[in-house]
Amino acid sequence: MSPPWTRFPSAHCQDSQAGGPDQEREKRWAELFDQLDLNKDGHIDILELRTGLAGRGLSKASLEKIVEAGDTNQDGVLDFKEFTQFLRAHEKDLKLMFRSLDKNNDGRIDAAEIQHSLHTIGVEVSLEDATRILQRMDKDGTMTIDWNEWRDFFLFKPLTNIEDVARCWKRSMMLDIGEQLTVPDDFTEEEKKSGYVWRQLMAGAFAGSVSRTGTAPLDRLKVFRQVRGFVDFKGNVLSSFRYMLKEGGLRSLWRGNGINVLKIAPETAIKFTAYEKIKNVMRSNNETRNLRVHERFVAGSLAGATAQTAIYPMEVLKTRLTLGKTGQYSGIAVCAKQILQREGITAFYKGYVPNLLSIVPYAGIDLAVYETLKFTWLNRNRGLADPGVVVLVGCGAVSSTCGQLASYPLALIRTRMQAQASVKGAPKPSMSASLRSIVRQEGVAGLYRGISPNLLKVIPAVSVSYVVYEYTRIVLGVDIEGGI
Predict the structure, then answer these.
(1) Displacement of CA 74 from its chain's centroid (Å)
(2) Which of 245, 383, 395, 438 has the fewest CB atoms lying closer than 10 Å?
(3) In which region does residue 421 sit, left (phi positive, over 0), alpha (psi from -120 to 50) or beta (all else)?
(4) What gap in Å lies between CA 315 and CA 296, rounded to an integer?
(5) What's the pLDDT tens digit per position in 158-169?
(6) Rounded Cα gap, residues 472 and 466, in angstroms
């Protein structure tokens, strides 16, 4: 659950007085200072700012910038004079930004003006998207933004230019629920050059490794029920779990997890690199142009297909190791050698076609649900602070789960084809033949066999991934914010 929103007194002042002394404004700043000064010592430190502004989705780095900007005597805290000097200077910058957007000088910003201003800097958004940006700040429901609404919304935001407004709700976390990775996009050139991107991807990969290890028993249970459910596991999830314990003991619950963790790093690197290259091709000669939603969907799908093609042999190895009995394989290399000797190199791409086909519904549903959820939140929380990373994680978890549900039948067919051992040179069963066999023997419900443990692992996987990611990014010096 995201932290409760902290409401602060708004500084209502006349336009002509925005940059000069104003008693009403000073009074409200005093009230705000008093609210943030939790220990009432006449100073505000970074911890008090973090507590008082918890509902605004600000990162630690942003809060440190506030203290650094206002701390004129370099004592690490803000007294009232320093606090008001910071707000006065920041309001002046915000006023210049507001005037640059207010093209008709009527004291209000509408959606068309936001769209036009973004267009002038090469950021293309639809009028609908511009309206959604506007609704985040529109407290009174007039579908326009006046100076007070603009200033109050960005009062503690590290806003430097209009591009910051456009970068709202970008997906800034890697979410790993054990299936297809969600890799963040839309990094700035500065972030790419500074190494920030790879530190963030590294934090996400490590979080995914811990998350997958923590939910490995449920993942192995899912694969068992997908492949052997109709024959061996006709009971419930608990009886299937008991079978695995009886066959190999407690350690066997993590069988196949090693290769599942190892493939995270190459998959992340390849998917992100491919995504960046594909975006550049799509932009053609206009490198600053932002991709539209459908273009991002195509780029994401192609990047996912590229990554899956490269690491697919590891997927086959993971399935074989997961289903292996005690003593059948002594390691990843032994498993790979046996497959190569007995079935040939083509065995490493069994189930490749349904796997490739599953990327499109997964990516499409994932993106569509994510966009729907975030815009629903925006419409219901007009004028409030940014949602913070917890809400973004929740949206990502729900959208990824919906994507899994849509692509699950193809994933099940892929897993069964991967699991089928065959003699080298023998004809391979096709995807259509596998589909007909499942429907004929098990009915349509058979296409969703094993989905219950898959759904059970979503909440713990996302929770573990989020917590580990938070700690890892701090260690690596990565700070993220839940919005602008």
Answers:
(1) 37
(2) 245
(3) beta
(4) 26
(5) 666 665 555 543
(6) 10
Judged by DSSP in three states, 355 sits in: helix
**Residues with Cβ < 8 Å from 68, sequence gap 6 or more?**
none
Residue 133 has pLDDT above 80, yes or no: no
Q: How far apart are CA 251 and CA 440, in angstroms?
A: 36
**Helix 80-101 and helix 23-36: axis angle, to 10°?**
120
- Whole-structure pTM over 0.70, yes or no? no
E strand or H helix at 145 = strand 145-146
* Residue-by-residue DSSP string for 406-471: HHHHHHHHHHHHHH----TTSPPPPHHHHHHHHHHHH-GGGGGTTHHHHHHTHHHHHHHHHHHHHH
Nearest to 64 by CA among 86, 81, 82, 45: 45
Return the percent helix, strand and coil in the chain, to nearest 5. Answer: 65, 0, 30
Q: Own/partner pairs for 247-253, CB < 8 Å, 24+ apart?
A: 247/325, 247/326, 248/325, 248/326, 249/326, 252/326, 253/216, 253/217, 253/220
Q: 267: part of which helix (H) or strand (E)? A: helix 264-283
Angle CA(35)–CA(95)–CA(87) in degrees, nearest 5?
25
**Whole-number Å distance between alpha carbons of 170 and 191:** 14
Given a contact cutoff of 8 angstroms between Cβ atoms, the answer to whether 199 and 187 are in contact is no
Q: How does pLDDT run across 45-92, given as a tens digit for each residue? A: 888 887 887 666 566 667 777 888 888 888 888 888 888 888 888 888
How distant, in Å, are the alpha carbons of 199, 218, 391 from that of 204? 9, 21, 17
The secondary structure of residue 285, as a DSSP letter, is: T
Write phi, then psi, for 100 (nearest 5 degrees).
-70, -25
β pairing state of 108-109 and 145-146: antiparallel
Angle between helices 293-323 and 264-283 (to 10 degrees): 160
The three-state secondary structure class of 100 is helix
- The tally of CA atoms less than 13 A away on the side-chain side of residue 423 is 1
* H helices present in 2-160, as ranges: 23-36, 46-52, 60-70, 80-101, 111-120, 127-135, 147-154
**CB atoms < 10 A from the CB of 428, how many?**
14
287 in helix, strand or coil? Answer: coil
How far lies 330's CA from each of 26, 234, 255, 300, 402, in Å?
Answer: 73, 29, 11, 37, 37
**Cβ atoms 263, 315 nearer than 8 A:** yes
The answer to whether the beta carbons of residues 464 and 211 sit under 8 Å apart is: yes
Determine whether 10 is exposed, middle or buried from the number of CB atoms within 10 Å of its CB (0-12, 13-18, 19+).
middle
